[in-house]
């Protein structure tokens, strides 16, 4: 975006300009989450309902971000809002356990195959942290095996592997000793077998079962089946990061979708109905590490210590219960999946018609778009572009990603991140049609401006 368009953009968004000026004086980095950073201005949302949201300057967006993929039912579903309102009337924070916590736990047990026992937390990242502590306590081992491009939270314990280059820390401030506990390899079963054979200090293999960065670098069910066999044979725990796949791939998450039961899984986003909340679930014998036994030495030194002021907060719990009751029917998935499939097919048709070196892909209610940067690799056949190489799929140059996002945003379409998004049961056929019109305009503009490549 050149100087003139930037000035025009700023002028057309006076409220965002004002808010960002204030943010720069109060918020470190100017935003509350790295993905919210926009150029030249962040998006400031005033309200949202169903599949739409509106910014402070009055612009309306079809939202495929859905609260960072936390909202399977769309924004502000009435039954979830009612449940939260009812909970608020009884008190919004007790600092004690309460009956709704048990109802929430029992719903999760019915849906998630591995959830024999669980512990509530406040986010997916907290679930990831707790999963590592539990895996180490149960196995007596230290290291975690991860795959290139997989996220699993922002904490130090997974501080290597999510970002290119995958062998480098994702952030400043992570101690080298912590990074040494993380082994990062390509998602290849032979490589897994080699590491597990050589390194007897691997406590767990932790991954996003759908693939790197919510399926940007997709994995197959067959890969997950092979991984289940390898971990079981080597006495290593299999830990699923179901923060995005959980309750989205199926009512029971990726576990139900693939018919594979991990030893542990951690969840956020949908599990709490889009409110702050999360859960670590797993085999009963593993989760016994939380139990008090009366043995003073064991309870002090061999038990997993876990606190959390807002664990199973009643308002988040109410939102989670109301959402999971709908999730259990499978009806939200039928609609969201159908619309996402329609969107992927429509995007792919546009890319094909325009001769673009790229393609749309994804599972269930998720879509991703791969685009080659101009001038491209010289490929003459779209099918030859299809890959599972996470270095390629997560390596679209930043100027391409930025232009794609900004052009869609200017046409009223917002994504989760990178070049992908999610649908919800609140989206409509009209939303899909409008999105495809905007997508076609954006692709033609990117080709015309020599941002993305065409087939040779």
| The CATH H-level homologous superfamily of the largest domain | Type I PLP-dependent aspartate aminotransferase-like (Major domain)
> In total, how many domains does the architecture comprise?
2
Helix/strand-derived class? alpha/beta
Strand count, sense and barrel status of the largest sheet are: 7 strands, mixed
**Distance N to C terminus:** 27 Å
CATH topological fold name of the largest domain:
Aspartate Aminotransferase, domain 2
Strand content: 5-15%
Low-confidence stretches: none
How would you characterize this protein structure?
The structure is a single chain. With 456 residues, the chain is α/β, with parallel strands linked by helices. It folds into two domains: 43-74 and 331-448, Aspartate Aminotransferase, domain 1 (Alpha-Beta Complex), CATH 3.90.1150.10; 78-329, Type I PLP-dependent aspartate aminotransferase-like (Major domain) (Aspartate Aminotransferase, domain 2), CATH 3.40.640.10. Helices cover 41% and strands 14% of the residues. It is built from 18 helices and 15 strands. It has helices spanning 3-11, 14-23, 66-69, 78-90, 99-111, 124-139, 176-179, 189-198, 212-215, 221-234, 253-258, 284-287, 296-301, 314-329, 331-353, 390-393, 398-410, 429-448, and strands at 45-49, 52-55, 60-63, 117-121, 143-147, 182-185, 202-207, 217-218, 237-241, 264-267, 278-282, 358-361, 366-371, 413-414, 420-422. α5 (99-111) packs parallel to α14 and α8 runs parallel beside α10 (221-234).
């Amino acid at each position: 975006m050149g100087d003139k368009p930037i000035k025009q953009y700023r002028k057309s968004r006076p409220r965002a300009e004002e808010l960002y000026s204030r943010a720069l004086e109060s918020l470190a980095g100017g935003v509350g989450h790295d993905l919210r950073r926009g150029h030249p201005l962040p998006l400031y949302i005033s309200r949202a309902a169903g599949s739409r949201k509106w910014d402070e300057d009055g612009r309306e967006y079809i939202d495929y971000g859905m609260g960072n993929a936390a909202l399977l039912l769309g924004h502000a579903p009435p039954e979830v809002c009612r449940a939260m309102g009812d909970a608020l009337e009884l008190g919004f924070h007790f600092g004690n356990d309460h009956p709704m916590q048990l109802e929430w736990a029992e719903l999760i047990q019915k849906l998630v195959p591995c959830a024999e026992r669980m512990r509530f937390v406040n986010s997916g990242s907290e679930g990831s942290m707790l999963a590592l502590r539990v895996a180490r306590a149960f196995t007596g081992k230290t290291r975690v095996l991860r795959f290139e491009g997989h996220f699993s939270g922002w904490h130090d314990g997974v501080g290597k592997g999510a970002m290119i280059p995958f062998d480098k820390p994702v952030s400043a401030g992570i101690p080298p000793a912590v990074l040494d506990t993380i082994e990062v390899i390509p998602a290849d079963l032979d490589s897994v077998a080699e590491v597990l054979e050589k390194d007897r200090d691997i406590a767990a293999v932790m991954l996003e079962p759908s693939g790197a960065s919510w399926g940007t670098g997709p994995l197959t069910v067959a890969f997950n089946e092979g991984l289940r066999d390898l971990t079981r044979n080597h006495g290593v725990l299999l830990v699923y990061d179901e923060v995005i796949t959980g309750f989205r791939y199926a009512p029971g998450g990726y576990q139900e979708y693939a018919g594979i039961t991990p030893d542990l899984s951690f969840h956020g986003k949908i599990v709490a109905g889009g409110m702050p909340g999360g859960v670590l679930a797993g085999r009963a014998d593993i989760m016994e590490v939380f139990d008090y036994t009366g043995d003073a030495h064991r309870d002090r030194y061999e038990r997993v210590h876990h606190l959390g002021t807002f664990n199973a907060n009643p308002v988040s719990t109410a939102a989670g219960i109301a959402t999971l009751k709908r999730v259990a029917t499978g009806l939200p998935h039928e609609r969201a999946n159908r619309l996402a499939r329609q969107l992927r097919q429509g995007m792919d048709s546009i890319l094909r018609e325009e001769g673009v070196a790229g393609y749309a892909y994804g599972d269930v209610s998720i879509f991703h778009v791969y685009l080659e940067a101009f001038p491209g690799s010289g490929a003459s056949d779209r099918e030859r572009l299809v890959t599972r190489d996470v270095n390629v799929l997560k390596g679209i140059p930043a100027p391409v990603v930025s232009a794609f996002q900004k052009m869609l945003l200017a046409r009223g379409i917002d994504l989760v991140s990178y070049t992908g998004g999610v649908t919800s049961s609140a989206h409509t056929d009209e939303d899909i049609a409008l999105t495809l019109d905007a997508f076609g305009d954006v692709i033609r503009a990117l080709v015309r401006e020599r941002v993305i490549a065409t087939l040779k």
